[in-house]
Amino acid sequence: MSKCFYITTAIDYVNGQPHLGHAYEKIIADVIARSRRSLGQAVFFLTGLDEHGQKVQQAAQAEKRNPQEYCDALAADWQAFAQKLALTNNDFVRTTQPRHKEFVQATLATLNDAGHFYKATYTGFYSAKEETFLTEKDRLPDGTFDASYGEVVELREDNYYFKLGAHQQWLIDTIEANPDFIAPSYRRNEVLGFLKNHTLEDLCISRPVARLNWGIPLPFDPEFVTYVWFDALVNYTSIAKAHQELGLWPADIHVIGKDIVKFHAVYWPIMLKAMGLPLPKQILVHGWWQKDGAKISKSTGNVVDPVAVINEWGLDAFRYYVLRELDIGPDGNWTDPGFRSRYQAELANGLGNLVNRSLSMLKRYRNGVVPAKSNDLAADAAKAADETRAWLRQSQLQAALQSIWGLVNRANKYVDETAPFKLAKDPAQAQRLDDVLYNLAESCRVLAVLLNPFLPGTSAKIYAQLGLTNAPDQLADATWGGLPAGHTIGEPAPLFPRKDV
Ligand code: MSP
């Protein structure tokens, strides 16, 4: 059997509630996971939470809670959120789990024994307020630091460093030799530009317990905990190890946002090289959402609450909008009018209307019994299916939806051209009406199969309304002619209720 297709998301900091950006990334990964399964591959989809480090410790402190209890409480919310999005993840990692912590410690011990780390004293300017060291670059033109850093003091601190610099040329060569390693290509060019124009500094992989204790202790020095990014990145391999029998590593795709490319495309490959492990096949980088042209921000109230949108419009409408509106790569802009307009035009009037009138007419004119096969739309359906399969193999989700809507629009136009309600009035046109009704019902069936990775609920409803009892979850079933003559369909019902807005 071929290797399991292993896809991951970034693991989210558990320092608040999930928002649109988190939802978007997880839906991208879910659609890729579902489409690979639909293409017949075995898939393992991992998502989860990044629970250590300063951000989480501070969030827990702000609520006067012990960090582990704080994480446990929020992790339940995030897992419920994953279900709300209908994610088909096969596991959910939390970096405070023993299976992960033990793997991180074993990795650190091995790398330390192999001489990848050294201890050094760093002297620098430290902002206690931001809990971060500042560099010369952070100075204002007058030599001071911005007031937002609070009091800045000179601090000496011992830490452990990972020798990254030694691998810089190797990384450049590797990225150049593997054009698909970082996608889209402009992200790859940015990474190459960075690597060719900067000397990589060694990576500080520890924090003194005195300054930050919410982390995984270094196995070789209890005065330190592991830097949160070293801990977090390792999740992709700790969980692969936890499912050793599946042979997950190397991962096929890491889905991440544009702000964390350096961690995934620079630090992580070098860490893996040091660990003696092969690199993931692809780092797929998505852009960031804004709302109404401005940064999403809790403090200004400029937010999209995915749960509220889902409760009002349905999960599939939410999944559809984020994937159709924004290609994987550029930044996007959520607007409520834009959302409503896609809902009305593409879901309610486009797909919903097609399915509803096709099945209602079959019910009304033929008692719901599927006529003999006819091929008017066979070529259109084959085109949509071929294109969709090809786009899905390249994780081009927006393009796949465009191909699918090619068939939605073609079939709706076919209703207008053939006017079955007129044919129904003329007994001499009975054969023609049979043909039209077959083409429409079968197009709906093909659409259910193609849509399954994107809109799983809608896809299942279409199959149920068609009276089909198998699942629409194999793209091979998108082949024209699957509806057998004589089969009786189920009850048509609107898929996307029209909303008065
Ligand atoms: N914990 C780290 C990731 C560790 S991965 C080994 C982290 N967490 S995060 O919660 O800040 O972000 C998680 C993901 O959400 C990132 O990929 C990030 O790019 C994405 N997004 C956060 N805000 C976003 C938007 N406004 N729009 C789209 N994605 C956004 O970074």
How would you summarize the topology of this molecule?
Layout lengths: L4 E5 L2 E2 L6 H19 L4 E8 L3 H9 L4 H18 L6 E4 L3 H16 L3 E11 L4 E3 L17 E11 L5 H10 L4 E2 L1 H13 L5 E2 L1 E3 L8 E2 L2 E6 L1 H6 L1 H8 L10 E5 L3 H15 L6 E5 L2 E3 L2 E2 L10 H8 L1 H11 L6 E3 L1 H31 L11 H16 L3 H22 L1 H4 L6 H22 L4 H10 L36
Parallel strand pairs: 1-3, 1-13, 2-3, 3-4, 8-14, 13-14, 15-17
Antiparallel strand pairs: 5-6, 5-7, 7-9, 10-12, 11-12, 15-16
Helix pairs in contact: 4-8, 5-6, 10-11, 12-14, 12-16, 13-14, 13-16, 14-16, 16-17
Report on this model:
It is built from 17 helices and 17 strands. By secondary structure, the protein is an alpha/beta fold. The chain folds into 2 domains: about 5-285, Rossmann fold (3-Layer(aba) Sandwich); about 315-480, Isoleucyl-tRNA Synthetase, Domain 1, CATH 1.10.730. The strands form 4 sheets. Strands 1, 2, 3, 4, 8, 13 and 14 form a 7-stranded parallel sheet that branches. A 4-stranded antiparallel sheet has the order 6-5-7-9, with no helix packed on it. Helix content is about 50%, strand content about 15%. It starts with a strand and ends in a 36-residue tail after the last helix. 5'-O-[(L-methionyl)-sulphamoyl]adenosine binds next to strand 2, helix 1, helix 7 and strand 13.
List keywords for this structure.
alpha/beta, 4-stranded antiparallel beta sheet, 2 domains, elongated, 501 residues, 7-stranded parallel beta sheet, binds 5'-O-[(L-methionyl)-sulphamoyl]adenosine, Rossmann fold
Helix fraction bin: 40-55%
CATH topology of the largest domain: Rossmann fold
| The CATH H-level homologous superfamily of the largest domain | HUPs
CATH C-level label of the largest domain:
Alpha Beta
Helix/strand-derived class? alpha/beta
- Tell me the count of domains: 2
Radius of gyration, whole Å: 27 Å
Distance between the termini: 52 Å
Low-confidence stretches: none
